[in-house]
Description:
The structure is a homodimer of 360-residue chains.
Chain A: E1 2-6, H1 10-19, E2 25-30, E3 42-45, H2 51-59, E4 63-66, H3 73-80, H4 89-96, H5 98-107, E5 115-118, H6 124-131, E6 135-139, E7 149-152, H7 155-165, E8 169-173, E9 179-187, E10 193-195, E11 199-204, E12 207-213, H8 221-234, E13 239-248, E14 251-258, H9 268-271, H10 276-284, E15 297-304, H11 310-314, E16 319-323, E17 333-341, H12 347-358
Amino acid sequence: MRIGVVGGGQLARMLAMAAYPLGMQVTVLDASSDASAGQVADLVHGDFSDRKALGRLADASDVVTFDFENVPAASADWLAARVPVRPGARALEMSQDRIAEKELFTRLGIPTPRFAPVDGTADLEAAISVTGLPAVLKTRRLGYDGKGQRVVRDMSSAMEAVEQLGSGLVLESFVDFERELSIIAVRGMGGEVAFYPMVENLHRDGILRHSSAPATATAHAQDARDAVERLLVELDYVGVFTLELFETTDGLLANEFAPRVHNSGHWTIEGAVTSQFENHLRAVAGLPLGSTAPRGASVMVNFIGSMPDADKVLSLPGAHLHDYGKRPRPGRKLGHATLNAPAAEELDPVLARLITIARG
Amino acid sequence: MRIGVVGGGQLARMLAMAAYPLGMQVTVLDASSDASAGQVADLVHGDFSDRKALGRLADASDVVTFDFENVPAASADWLAARVPVRPGARALEMSQDRIAEKELFTRLGIPTPRFAPVDGTADLEAAISVTGLPAVLKTRRLGYDGKGQRVVRDMSSAMEAVEQLGSGLVLESFVDFERELSIIAVRGMGGEVAFYPMVENLHRDGILRHSSAPATATAHAQDARDAVERLLVELDYVGVFTLELFETTDGLLANEFAPRVHNSGHWTIEGAVTSQFENHLRAVAGLPLGSTAPRGASVMVNFIGSMPDADKVLSLPGAHLHDYGKRPRPGRKLGHATLNAPAAEELDPVLARLITIARG
């Protein structure tokens, strides 16, 4: 089977590496000629609205999927008229607009922070009356890795944030969370769903730094699975799906979803029976899903801005290095390492050393 | 680091897949334009004695290794004059000639079946007086997967076998073994050695069918490790090394060694902390070796001549499919599947189903 991927970053690269053992071929579409996935898969060079490039991707693919959700809806629709596209355009569209996403959560009875649209300073007073303060002002579209977000504590910082971010914004209640969790699920062509164990995530400057899996027990795991199940059915979803959550003393609040494999699931390569990448491919190819059971305990550390010495990482017991082959740039995700051990207690001393190495 | 591989079969393909996460690039040299590894790595198309092709491989590589031991010694030497070649030409040469190999075993005090050279029917009587009957007549060079072997039970079948196989033969005592074992080791640039647990192998028609790891307890594991250690030091070896053994009621007998990653080590991809492919790359690149500890119990089944339905294989619990992307041909290794579970007892019922699926 020939798999096409819109986007050629590290997610597409890891999809390709999971595809080859299954006997699949992979073509990726990316605007960068040295895209991470282009080093290990066929690359169609072009941007996501370039019809000629989209046509070449469609011609090279039996099914098309995504490593990036911010693909123009018109491109997804254009592809879908030519080749099966999984997940479908609707899941992409919902995930592109924070307000549509939160309205969907609300409609499905999934608790989410209070929110209100903001298109200029004139809307601020009404919005703050909904969210309270402090709050977080975000761009409705195209935000990722903490880009396009400002915490606002009073009206004057809110005015300033609106001036910086422009229009097309959403104000959200600031959540005083206990911890950040994510849950990754996969839904097959026949509607069957499997869940990976919940993951505990640590962000800094809006970028994911560490993920630990399985997360230590939460009283709310079933709530998270129920929420995902409702979203998957509503979106008629096929493939891997990720929901990011805040755990608070009052329960879980849904933050956002990603209609794709996710950074907080990289640990599944070594830490689960079937990786998120393989399960996404199995799903979109109509194959049986693989077990999502964890194998021991894992923690993943992202390498941001610069790669550590491979030598140092590989000297750590149970360490697995993933270098994405990307050019260093401040704030850019260049690779990760996963530590795996039979039990979580064994990870802590090694994690401390890995974090030191990751900092250079 | 840029890795060159002489040979572009499934071993090179799996080496490439282990290389990318380490941030390495891979170029393979193969005489076939649709070589298995050429689908996932850069391919230099040419035969193993084509100096122009060897030169292109050397130019594209910081270190060169092999997925096939029957490379002309002159080619290995020619490469070694231009780029580091690991393991070295001597290990290749020894493994190419069954008599040199057995003389090496004998010199190092490693028990091996009795043997004698046979260059024509005139040598048979003397050879049989050394080996006894039954015995196995083999070509000294270029035998693999049972090719170039005949069991002989009396003088007349021995005469016939010599006429079929020609000259440059070796007669070996037939070993009435309890089981076939292999042990895979990796030796780093600094001389450090790590051993995978022993593997129990089942051959049919001279082709490996199943490998189970870890093998159930053998009283002779330390003998096997000692034998490998002596060979590694003698050959000044770097990389993964495999020794195939017969277990008899009198102890172990060395059958042959392979100076490379090995079919009986494919289970390490899912069944060991670090796969044989990653550890070979770590060794030849001068990086620290990874843990060779097993993760649960594994059994690998080869797909010979035809590939089963992916659907059926992937519906088995704990099954991992590896399709080499090769054209079907009778007797050809096209792929494998590894079953992995926390304990060996859980594998048996699934193995029975996998074997049925593999038979088509």
